[in-house]
Amino acid sequence: MKKIDDPRIAATRSAALDAALGILQDEGVPAVTHSAVNKATGISRSTLYRHWPETKRLLIDTFKHASGPSKLKPAADGPLRADLNWHLTHLVTALNETPWAKIAPQIIASATMDEEAQILLNELMGERIAFVENTFIAAQARNEIVSGAPIRQLVEMMISVPYFRKLILGATLDKGWMESHIEMICSLAENPVPE
Amino acid sequence: MKKIDDPRIAATRSAALDAALGILQDEGVPAVTHSAVNKATGISRSTLYRHWPETKRLLIDTFKHASGPSKLKPAADGPLRADLNWHLTHLVTALNETPWAKIAPQIIASATMDEEAQILLNELMGERIAFVENTFIAAQARNEIVSGAPIRQLVEMMISVPYFRKLILGATLDKGWMESHIEMICSLAENPVPE
DNA sequence: CTGCTATAGTACAAAAAGTATCATTATTTG
DNA sequence: CAAATAATGATACTTTTTGTACTATAGCAG
Questions:
Q1: Distance from CA of residue B92 to its chain's centroid?
Q2: Residue B165: which of A91, A122, A134 has the closest Cα?
Q3: How far apart are CA A33 and CA A25, in angstroms?
Q4: pTM (2 decimals)?
Q5: What is the C-alpha to C-alpha distance for residues A97 and B195, in angstroms, rounded to an integer?
Q6: Where are the domains of chain A?
Q7: CA B189 to chain centre
Q8: Is residue A109 a contact partner of residue B29, using CB atoms and an 8 Å limit?
Q9: Which of A102, A29, A129 is nearest to B28 (CA)?
Q10: For chain B, which residues lie within 8 Å of any Cβ of chain A, measuring from their own Cβ?
Q11: What's phi and psi for A76, nearest 5 deg?
């Protein structure tokens, strides 16, 4: 009885979220409104309101649309420096060459106000953290790093510094910086912290 | 001729920004409007528009009002662990016990869209970075750390991890974590990174 | 083809943003 | 103290935006 797969639904949804994402990048969260999407796409306001009765839902879906499917891969076959280099390159590329550097701060700010944004942010970050963590665990299994290495803290250092430099300081994330960053992390992983 | 110091100006400005700050904490950037401040304070809209002709200026001033005057002190008289502990305690306190954890993400997100917010953010962060950096430089002068220590990177690690944990992961910043964080930083500062 | 339903269009109501004018009131200055 | 001055509050108005309701059209499924 029901038309469960009308292609128009996916089409308008996709077109609307594409436009909303562009608006989010260019003008920020307050500009992501039904009317703005209407002006950008020609999709009528009534249709947009049917898809997203609340502005908040439109924004959350735009965030999800922006993050898209994950492109993370295991990369834990060693050696450690190579794996870490892969992970850091992946993160730096996302921050330098995708809209992520503009989208992420908006999600982070929304997460302080909104439960759903908080959950989305945790999913996105948790995935990356888990992958890097597995890299260290694998390296530990191969005896590349000391057995008592504080893996969780190493993971957080690995990821937090590029985010801080890019989002908060507006600093560059270049090849030279990446190399010395990895070297410092490895130095901590390979030598026991003295008591 | 001119009345250069009418106390009413400072009074309304202060009352309006107090209310705007509360609104910013509770409902985020989009809610910081002249009308919202009017409802919260009773200050007439016409007066508010005279003080801040553009909404953007109201928001920036609210940011500045939130950050307030700096409370950083030198704290570079050693030993290094004590100085770092002072700095980290100061930062963690700001993140745990003031509205800063809610305000900072809003400023960071605004900074990606707005030049003035970017400048304000750089000032706020630059001040803290400079203080921590001076701590390391002083420790180096006292021969507490190796001469080739990568001070700038140590400073960024010192600061970025607590921000990342609090703002992005929503994790706790407790006493135990602080101690091991400082220990890792010191380990890097006291031992030369092997080539 | 026929029925269903997503979309577009229109109209409308409510709220908010922004501007302008004027009376009132508090403060400065002489 | 008294007058000049400037800030505030109140009101009115225009424009824009938001949100809702209803209708006609057009595309898709069965």
A1: 11
A2: A122
A3: 13
A4: 0.94
A5: 31
A6: 7-66, 69-190
A7: 25
A8: yes
A9: A29
A10: 27-30, 101-102, 105-106, 108-113, 118, 121-122, 125, 150, 153, 156-157, 159-161, 163-165, 167-170, 180-181, 183-184, 187-188, 191, 193-194
A11: -130, 35
Q: What is the pLDDT of residue B1?
A: 44
User: How many Å from the CA of B55 to C1' of C20?
Assistant: 19
B33 touches strand C (CB under 7 A): yes
Distance CA A100, CA A95 (A): 6
Compute the distance between CA of residue A23 and CA of residue A6 in angstroms, rounded to an integer.
27
**Cβ proximity of B15 and B43 under 8 Å:** yes
DSSP state for residue A31 in the 8-state scheme:
G
Q: What is the CB-side half-sphere exposure of residue B133 using CA atoms within 13 A?
A: 11
Protein residue closest via CA to C1' of D30 = A1
- pLDDT digits over B61-96, tens only? 999 999 888 877 766 787 999 999 999 999 999 999
Q: What are phi and psi of A87, to 5 degrees?
A: -65, -45
A184 is written with which tokens? 């410092």
Closest amino acid to nucleotide C16 (CA–C1'): B35
Tens of pLDDT along B96-130?
998 999 999 999 999 999 999 999 999 999 999 99
CA–CA separation, A111 and B105 (whole Å): 9
Q: Which fold has domain B69-190?
A: Tetracycline Repressor; domain 2 (1.10.357)
Distance CA B154, CA B160 (A): 10
In this structure, are residues A63 and A99 in contact, taking their beta carbons and an 8 Å threshold? no
Token pair, residue B9, equals: 């100006």
How would CATH label the architecture of A7-66? Orthogonal Bundle (1.10)
